[in-house]
Amino acid sequence: MKFQVIGILVKNYIGNKSQYISLIMICLVGIILSTFPIGWDRTLNSVTLFNLPLELYGRSREGSLLGLLDEFFSWAWVIIAIFYLPSLLKKLNESFSVNEMLWLRLLPCHPYEVAIARVCWVVGWASLLGILGTVWALICSSFHQVPYRELLINVEGLVSHVILSGGIIVALDFVVNIRELEQNLTSVIALLFPLLLTPIYLGINEILDVRYMGFFPYVIPFNRGLQNTFGHFATAALIGLILLFIHAALMFKFSLVKVDIEE
Amino acid sequence: MTHIQVEQPILELKDIVFSYTETRKASQNKPLLNIEKLILYPNDKVGIIGDNGSGKSTIVRIILGLHIPKGTVNLFGRKVLWGNHYSSLGYIGDPSFSPGYTGLPTGISVREVVDSFKAICKIKKETFSDIEEQLNFDNFLNKDVKNLSNGERKKLMIFLALAKRPNLLIADEATDGLDEKSKCFVIEKIKQISATSKLGILWISHQHHEVAMLTDTVYELIEGQLKAPTHKRFNCKIETYPKTSVNGSYQNISSKGWLEVAAKIYTNPVISNFEIKGMRAQGEDERS
Predict the structure, then answer these.
(1) Which residue among A218, A242, B26, B203 is the one 20 to 30 A from A121 at the CA level?
(2) What is the mean pLDDT of residues B115-139?
(3) Can you tell me the ipTM of this complex?
(4) Is the pLDDT of residue B48 over 80?
């Protein structure tokens, strides 16, 4: 395995760096909005935003602050899911197309190196969001003196969303004959499927008392009312990672055909 | 890595039957391609000519693994699979698998493609600068690949195919969209590589004189079948004064190819005189 080749391919997949800069900007704006404008009014027993009391979030300081911060992060999650994640998924989809694959197939790189580069790309994307989210959570936690663990659950959810969606794309994209319309459709399915698993889980959980439902995979923002989201999000990420791993492993069955012509 | 001896084929198509559509009644199925045998050994130069829609590009797509026909398709002694990578294969053409699909990446600049290519192939940055220079890469290095014109895209493909010194070059209307100077350079470059290596060539083109210049066996694709051309051919060397792009040695040049060359000479205002050396074969040199 040539790590240099994988590095070159990942660099090409990453492409335009402006979207990563704008993600960092979103994180910075999020940090600013989640710290200085938010406060606690002792007299009203209410959380405040720009000194406006928000009594909707309850009377407990910790609970209401966590509720508001959770909502802030959920909105950031929604923005990322609408404006950034589809482009990642579409590009991931396109990486299987004839355009992207034909020239790579004629280079001295192994098929599994291309697959590993794709996996690194998705995991790298998720890691970037995870790092930015963790920085946000730690800053908010220390600024407002609230436990960071609850804030990190949402970060875990966003990371899981990216990994599971990426895993779905690579699992679905084994067909060569995939056209632009099908690619867009696959991207939408991969984007929404992890979210749509939430009502499915809630429905099954309501009707049946099934064991191990704590490991049912789903991800969803605005999840304050849901129980044990950590387990569900972790399962979603694990399934995504398994799908990505299978994709890379399957590529080992193909080879790089090189010839050395002898007289 | 596969070691191939000179007597082992680098490309094998046997008993190929392929059709894009299939009707329910087998008797109504008239395949687009029905190729009994097409085998290339190292150093073989084979040309394929044929009318539009005769299936020339489909042959290339089959070799690239984009279509799976009935029969045997082997590249470098191994069955062709879309999942396999073939670093010894050079390809110039337009796979046209879907509209807008060109076989080159999008959302990336030509410079990035060339740099990645050189890094993966371990080619020094300045190597093959003659190809880049002669094909005027400077004019489109910073363009996104998706915004390239047909000619620029072909130039990039030519660079990617030739710079890695392939063992087999598959060219499908490779010079389409190129200016005369670039066409001439590409043909000379391929001749030069052929002279110093055992490069196998499968040259598919409408340009009969190109096929005649680069190949020594020519097939015509008629109704999906590869046939030796029926028309009489020339073996000749045409020298023009002053020397321009139509100079060269032509083998197996068909009467149609001869007309193409003649038209180029007569319509070129720079050429004041020309001389043809060689002979016109009377069919006895035709390959079966």
Answers:
(1) A218
(2) 85
(3) 0.84
(4) yes
Contact B86, B75 (CB under 8 A): yes
Residue type, B174: A
| Whole-number percent of chain B with pLDDT over 70 | 88
From the list A100, A111, A258, the residue facing B105 with the nearest CB is A100
Q: Check CB contact of A179 with chain B, cutoff 8 Å.
A: yes
Looking at this protein, which amino acid is placed at residue B234? F
Provide the pLDDT for residue B254.
80
Task: Place B288 in a pLDDT band, splitting at 50, 70 and 90.
Answer: very low
Looking at residue A105, what is its pLDDT? Answer: 93
Average pLDDT on B199-224 reads 89
- Is the Cβ of A15 closer than 8 Å to some Cβ of chain B? yes
Q: Do A257 and B112 touch (CB under 8 A)?
A: no
Q: Which of A97, A176, A259 sits opposite B76 (nearest CB)?
A: A259
CB A12 to CB B116 under 8 A?
Answer: yes
Chain centroid offset of residue B140 CA: 23
Nearest by CB to residue A260, choosing from B3, B78, B113, is B3
CA distance A177 to A127: 31
Nearest to A166 by CA among A228, A103, A86: A86
Question: Over pLDDT 90: what percentage of chain B?
Answer: 37
Q: Which residues of A237-248 are buried (b: 16+ CB within 10 A; e: fewer)?
A: bbbbbebbeebb
**Between chains, do B2 and A15 touch, taking CB under 8 Å as contact?**
no
Q: What pLDDT shows up at residue B285?
A: 45
- Per residue in A145-193, pLDDT tens? 999 999 999 999 999 999 999 999 999 876 555 667 778 888 999 999 9
Give chain B positions within 8 Å (CB) of A106. Answer: 85-87, 89-91, 160-161, 164
